[in-house]
Amino acid sequence: MTLLEVVQSAAAYFKKHNIESPRLNAEHLVAHVLRRTRMDLYLEFERELTEAELAPLREMVMRRAQGEPLQHLLGTVEFCGLIFLCDKRAMVPRPETEELVEIVESKIENRQSKILDVGTGSGVIALSLAAKFPEAEVRGVDISEDALDLARENAARLGLSDRVRFFRSNLLQNVDRTFDLIVANLPYIAAQDRHTLSREVLRDPDVALFGGAHGDELVHELIVQAPARLRPGGMLALEVGIGQSEGLLSVLAEKKYRDIYSKNDYSGGTRFLFARYG
Asked: pLDDT per residue over 187-234, tens digit each?
């Protein structure tokens, strides 16, 4: 089979198995196996592939069709212009979280800010902010040791191990200092909504997905805990689930935060909450 025929065959197989963007998935996997870029493929479409090249590709195509995330198969994911390791130890970063980082970046005025990323997962928020602000002091916490191991590997890969420290904490339980910014993309899916999730999302760790019976319990608790760990005027920045913003905005007001506001994501849903304290 030629390279083009392989791409077309894989795309057709993915479409049959209800994989979104089947052609794009096929191109990514073929490029990965052949160690080419997607653009390189277009220059080699007429090349015949060998059995040694086809064998590993068949396995990957089958795994993808069964719902294994593309990012797990590739082993990496691009986030805010950086390449991160990505596997089953932490949630696959979502485009909405890139939006959160972009908004937060625009709000940081002091380039020497002390920043805490709560529920850091693979470390994408903490490390993206550290790369953007070389003078900032950045920390990341998570309840999962597996996720923290992955975050440390990403820090090493990006040359940021000496600037970003990761440690285990259930929200702010083991945090003993104050910060100019606390940012969090915590689990916010309700346990009862498991049946609505795609096969790919269900490959993420449960601890990274489900926030409790209603979904917003962990975010609510962080709002309660954060004032003790925010410097005067420090900002809390949150990514939340669709439909959760109204209740959480009320909690922020009840807990005496100020400058409280929300922002929509690119799809129009109210996804991000911001507030200052003190």
From this structure: 999 999 999 999 999 999 999 999 999 999 999 999 999 999 999 999
Element (H, E) at 142: strand 137-142
Query: 237-261 pLDDT, tens per residue?
Result: 999 999 999 999 999 999 999 999 9
Using alpha carbons, select from 240, 202, 234 the residue that is nearest to residue 218.
240
Q: What pTM, to 2 d.p., does this model score?
A: 0.94
Cα–Cα nearest to 242, from 215, 220, 218, 208: 215
Helix %, strand %, coil % for the chain, to 5? 45, 20, 35
Report which of 227, 277, 272 is spatially closest to residue 257, judged by C-alpha positions: 277
Integer Cα distance of 116 and 164 in angstroms: 10
* 3-66 to CATH, choices 2.60.40.10, 1.10.10.10, 3.60.20.10, 1.10.8.10: 1.10.8.10
Return the structure tokens found at 268. 């129009």
Query: What average pLDDT does this structure show over 43-65?
Result: 96
CA distance 63 to 50: 21
Q: Give pairs for 196-199: CB < 8 Å, separation 24+.
A: 198/67, 199/66, 199/67
Cα 91 → chain centroid: 6
